[in-house]
Amino acid sequence: MNQARALADRTAVAGRRLTGAPDWPLIAATALGLGAMVQVMGHVVSSDDNLWLSFGVLAALGGTAPLALVRASPPAAAFLATGATFLTLLAGYPLTVGAAVALLAMLYVLGLRRPRRVALPVALPFIGYAAVVRSGLSVLLLGVALAALLLGQARRLRGELRQRAASDQVMADSLVEHAARGERARIARELHDVVAHHISMIAVQAETARLTTAGLPEEGAQRFSAIGDTARTALTEMRRLLGVLREDAGTTPTRRPQPSLQQLNQLIDEARASAGASTRLIVHGHVAPLDPGVELTAYRIVQEALTNARRHARGAAVDVELDYAADALRVRVRDNGPGPPPGSASGGHGLLGMRERAAMVGGTLHTGPAPASGFLVEAVLPLGSAEVAPPLPTEARLPLPTEARLPLATEARLPFASGEAT
Question: Which CDD domains match (predicted)?
């Protein structure tokens, strides 16, 4: 079996090399025509067979010469070769090997280069001949002719499928790249609002220090003035860049401050009201103010995860958990819905946006089916050099209305190292 497969592969490679040459039809037609005439001359046994010899030569040329036209017009070449073949058979003259090989080559090229509605009608004469003559030769001729046509059609179909798959992949990659660029532009706009506040504070504090510090040397005043000028220049450049991003995204500027984890309770209330199901916020660890970029990223991840839960698991209970560790903020959003169906796509543009946001602050994001049921979104956001405020009481949990305290399934409770939330 392996030897036969290797022989078939070598034959296919040799065929592709031969058909890849620009003049292969003319070369093949010449070689097969000469071989067919040699075979015809071998049947001549006396000088009285001149008429028979002339007909055999014409039949050999009629069966092989159309192969030279197969690159320009495969249907014309196949029809001419088919006609010459049946004239030869009807005259009672044996079909030469060269003519048979040329006919099969033309039928294969016809199936490869032309659609089914053009290629398959060429098989009708072979079907009629097999039905009328009913001999082993007619059946064999019909079988090999159909095999050559169908083999060409199969290769044509595989090529079309590969081309379509490549086109679909390019389109999918383009859509993903477009979504990623849009999400990065939105992230840049939001971070601008966060960073612009701090740069503005630098400029204000530098100017205030220059004006209010008693006995400030002239050199110190100049340094404070330079700090303020540098901060204002940076702010101007950031706003110019933001204007370009907003023009590319086709959005209008907003004046609202970017959200942080302080507004997470309000987001949970809105999600609970719109979904009509239990949505709980559970906080573990020592709560402390974090870097504004980290807080904005955590807020947006929770917001997108709740939106996905309302869209794909409507009515399912959702747990939102924040775990303040010493080195990272861990965010988990899990619902107890049915989870993604088997074989579904691994993620859409919403999940792509969450990954972009997590990567922006050096974090990671995991999404997929939860261990027992439902869907899980888990992000780990490093704290870096964020300023740590005095710790608040451990295991702070935001209160929920009594009707919202609906229990999840037993498996839907997410344990933490610091203890199970109750």
Answer: HATPase_UhpB-NarQ-NarX-like
Mean residue pLDDT across the chain: 75
- The 10s digit of each residue's pLDDT in 48-91 is 566 767 777 787 888 888 888 888 888 888 888 888 888 887 77
> Superfamily for 261-412?
Histidine kinase-like ATPase, C-terminal domain (3.30.565.10)
Domain regions of the chain by residue span: 2-167, 173-249, 261-412
pTM: 0.45
